[in-house]
Write a structure and sequence with these properties.
It comes from Paspalum notatum var. saurae. The protein is an alpha+beta fold and 457 residues long. The protein contains 13 helices and 13 strands. Helix 2 runs antiparallel to helix 9 and helix 3 packs across helix 9.
Length: 457
C-alpha cells in the first residue's frame, strides 16, 4: 500500500471520533465492570474454600462469556432482519456494513435534494423573481456573486453515504450569479462499488464526463418503451442523460474509486431519488398501492419502507453491510459507549441485589463476565474487520485460538444472503446454530405468524 493510501486510512472523520460523552459513558461502564470484578475477588478471598470458589467463579465467568456470544447473535440477527424506524439509536451502522464490510455505517439511500429559496438580500423596492429566486438589485451585484472557492479539485468523503457516493452541486444556491443563466455543475465521487442511485432531474439535461476510474451508466426512456440505454465509461468518456429521465451511475471496481464532473442545463436542476420518493415518502404511500404497482406481497413493501426511513440504530447496521470497514475507524469510546452506558446503570444494580441477598462470588462473576463481553463485543467485531497488521498485540493470537471472533469466520456473515455467523464475541455458537438452522426456523415461524419477511429472505 502506498504512503498516501495509508495516510488516508489514518484520517478519522469527525463523526467517527469519540466525544466527551462517549468517553464518559465508556468510563462509567468500565468502572462498573471493574467494581463488580473487585466484589467478586473480595468474596473469593474471604471464602473458607478459596479453591472451590475460584473454580465456581471461573465456570460462571465462562458461562457469561458463552452467553454473551449468543446475546450478540440474537441482537445482530434481530436488527439485521427486523429493525425498523422505532428501533433505538445504535442500528444505523449495521445494515450498511453488509455491502462494504470495511465501513460499518454506510447503507444510506441518497438524500433527496430540496432547494430552498435564495438567501440573497435584496432591496425592498426591487423584488422581481425568476424560478422562485430573488433577483438582486443590479447596483448591489459584485464579483463574489459569480465566484466560489469550491475546491472541486479535492476528493470528497464517500464514507458517510450508504450508497457510496458524494455529490458536490454548484447551483444558484451556492453561486447567485447563475440565476437565469440555465446552467449548473456537480462533482461526483464514487467509492469502490459506490453508486449515484436511480434518480431524475425534473428541470435539467445532464452531460457527464469521467475524470478518474470507470463508471457503468444509463438511463431509461419513458412509457411505454422503458428502454435502457447503458454504457461503460472510462476516463475521458462523455455521456448525456436527457431531462426528466431516470438515470444512474455505478462504479464497478472493487478497489478503485471514480470521479466525474456533470454539467446540467438549469441553475436549479432538482433531484428526485426514486427509492427515497417511492419507499421513503412522508407520510408513506399505502402498501396496498405499492404492492399492486410492483406486483409483490405487502410484507415486502413494508420491509422496503421501513428500511428506506431507518431508525438511527438500524441505519448503522445496514450501513455496516455496505461499508464494513468503517467500524475499524471508529475511535474506541465512540464504538463502545452505547453498550457501556447500559452496563454502567444495570450492573451496579445487579451487584447490589446479589450482595443484599448474600449470593456467593460465582453469582457476581457471571453478570460481570457477561457485561464485559457484551460491551467489548463491539470492539471484537471491529477487530474482525481490521487488517492483521493494524491489530493490537495479542489480538490476532486470540482470534486464531478461537477466544475472539476471527476475521475468516466473520467474513461468512458478509457474503450473501448474510444469514449466518452473527455472533461477535468468540463465534463459538455460530457453527452449531447455523448447522441446525435454528434462526432460520425462527424466521419462518415469524413469517408464518405475521407475514413479515426477514432481510435474509
Amino acid at each position: 500500500m502506498s504512503a498516501a493510501a495509508s495516510d488516508a486510512d489514518d484520517v478519522v472523520p469527525d463523526e467517527l471520533r469519540s466525544t466527551w460523552t462517549h468517553c464518559a459513558w465508556t468510563l462509567a461502564g468500565s468502572v462498573a465492570i471493574v467494581m463488580s470484578l473487585v466484589t467478586t475477588a473480595g468474596l473469593v478471598s474471604a471464602s473458607d474454600s478459596v479453591a472451590t470458589d475460584s473454580l465456581a467463579v471461573a465456570l460462571a465467568a465462562f458461562a457469561g462469556y458463552s452467553l454473551a456470544d449468543i446475546i450478540t447473535r440474537v441482537y445482530h440477527w434481530s436488527i439485521d432482519n427486523y429493525g425498523d424506524t422505532s428501533t433505538p439509536a445504535q442500528i444505523v451502522a449495521f445494515h450498511d456494513h453488509h455491502v462494504h464490510p470495511s465501513t460499518i455505517t454506510r447503507l444510506e439511500l441518497s438524500l433527496l435534494l430540496i432547494l430552498a429559496p435564495s438567501r440573497t438580500s435584496v432591496s425592498l423596492t426591487y423584488t422581481p423573481q425568476v424560478n422562485g429566486f430573488v433577483c438582486k438589485d443590479p447596483m448591489a451585484v459584485n464579483v463574489d456573486d459569480f465566484f466560489k472557492a469550491a475546491e472541486l479539485d479535492k476528493p470528497r468523503d464517500t464514507m458517510k453515504s450508504k450508497v457510496g457516493s458524494n455529490v458536490t452541486l454548484i447551483n444558484v444556491m451556492q453561486l447567485p450569479g447563475l440565476n437565469t443563466l440555465g446552467i449548473s455543475l456537480a462533482r461526483i465521487d464514487y467509492a469502490p462499488l459506490g453508486q449515484n442511485p436511480p434518480h431524475t432531474h425534473p428541470r435539467a439535461t445532464e452531460i457527464l464526463t469521467v475524470l478518474e476510474g470507470t463508471l457503468y451508466v444509463g438511463f431509461v426512456t419513458s412509457n411505454t418503451d422503458n428502454k435502457l440505454f447503458a454504457k461503460v465509461l472510462n476516463k475521458g468518456d462523455v455521456f448525456v442523460f436527457p431531462q426528466g429521465l431516470i438515470h444512474f451511475q455505478f462504479n464497478p471496481n472493487h478497489d478503485k474509486p471514480a470521479v466525474a464532473i456533470a454539467a446540467l442545463s438549469s441553475q436549479n436542476p432538482g433531484a428526485i431519488t426514486i427509492a427515497n420518493a417511492v419507499f421513503g415518502s412522508k407520510p408513506q404511500i399505502s402498501d396496498d398501492v405499492l404492492a399492486k404497482a410492483f406486483q409483490v406481497q405487502k410484507g415486502t413493501i413494508d420491509w422496503l419502507q421501513a428500511h428506506t426511513s431507518l431508525g438511527a440504530q438500524i441505519v448503522a447496521f445496514h450501513d455496516h453491510h455496505i461499508h464494513p470497514s468503517t467500524i475499524t475507524r471508529l475511535e474506541p469510546c465512540n464504538n463502545l459507549h452505547v453498550v457501556a452506558g447500559v452496563v454502567a446503570v444495570a450492573l451496579p444494580v445487579a451487584d447490589a441485589a446479589l450482595s443484599a441477598d448474600g449470593f456467593p462470588a460465582a453469582a457476581h462473576a457471571f453478570p460481570c463476565a457477561l457485561a464485559a463481553c457484551v460491551t467489548l463485543s463491539v470492539q471484537f467485531h471491529a477487530w474482525a474487520h481490521e487488517r492483521p497488521s493494524r491489530l493490537p498485540p495479542g489480538v490476532g493470537a486470540l482470534q486464531a485460538a478461537g477466544v475472539l471472533v476471527s476475521q475468516s469466520q466473520h467474513a461468512g456473515h458478509h457474503r450473501p444472503p448474510y444469514d449466518s455467523n452473527y455472533c461477535t464475541v468468540s463465534g463459538m455458537w455460530n457453527k452449531v446454530l447455523d448447522r441446525y438452522k435454528v434462526f432460520a426456523a425462527v424466521e419462518k415461524a415469524i413469517y408464518l405468524g405475521t407475514g413479515v419477511q426477514p432481510w435474509a429472505f
